[in-house]
Amino acid sequence: MRSAVTNVSWDLLDAPVIHGRGDEPVVVGTGTGAGREWTHARLLEEVAALGGLLHHLGVGPGVPVVVDLAEEHAVEAVVAALATARVGGVVRTDEDPAAPVAVVSAGASVDAGAGAGPAAEGRTRLVRAQPGEAVAEPDLDWAVMMRAGRTDPAACAALDDGAAYSPTRSVVEQRDVLAAEPAPYALADLRRLLQV
After folding, report:
1. CA 134, CA 24: separation in Å to the nearest integer?
2. Is residue 42 packed enough to be buried (19+ CB in 10 Å), middle (13-18) or exposed (0-12)?
């Protein structure tokens, strides 16, 4: 019999906040300003907001989410991976026709091979645009949707210990990968560890 386990988002964000370490940095050196950091509490707020939105869009245990964000959206890639994990989804960086949601940078061509224009039928694209760029309908704008997600943030799903984090790692294997290199993380390192 398999047992239920906490997921990656819980271990990285919720547990430190519960144990009084919410103001400690989990990601350092983000953006152009040296020394800019994200605390456990701040990242948890963003991840839970996006998790709430993903849950509303039908993402739950075992449901894939395509994450295809450009390097300038590295923080958003981390948030998307942890939010997907938070609701029990499977993080994908390649095309998956079963994924009901794709989180992409503006101009990304996820679904281009599906022959259905900017989004495959039944697929919602959550688009992170650059300042001044407009997001065309029917795509959803990251900034607008994050505000909406804050009204109903997602709780962490308890998962089976064999549940997939990604196509190549189980939840337990992903937890072990993060535990082997504890926080705080450089943004590029955390993105690499989360496989996004």
Report:
1. 35
2. middle
| Locus of tokens 């984090």 | 165
Give Cα 54 distance to the centre of its chain: 9
Q: What is the DSSP letter of 49?
A: H
Length of the chain: 196
Residue by residue, pLDDT tens for the chain (196 residues) are 566 778 899 999 999 999 999 999 999 986 655 567 999 999 999 999 999 999 999 999 999 999 999 999 999 999 999 999 999 999 999 999 999 999 999 977 654 433 334 456 679 999 998 888 889 889 999 999 999 999 999 999 999 989 999 999 999 999 999 999 999 999 999 999 999 9
40-56 vs 142-149: helix crossing angle, rounded to 10: 100
CA quadruple 29, 31, 34, 39: dihedral, nearest 10: -50
Cα–Cα distance, 164 to 9 (Å, whole number): 14
Residue with token string 């705080």: 184
The residues near 176 (Cβ < 8 Å, ≥ 6 apart) are none
pTM passes above 0.70: yes
- DSSP letter at 31 equals S
Asked if 40 and 34 touch (Cβ cutoff 8 Å), the reply is: no
Distance CA 70, CA 187 (A): 13
Contacts with 113 (C-beta within 8 Å, 6 or more apart), sequence order = 95
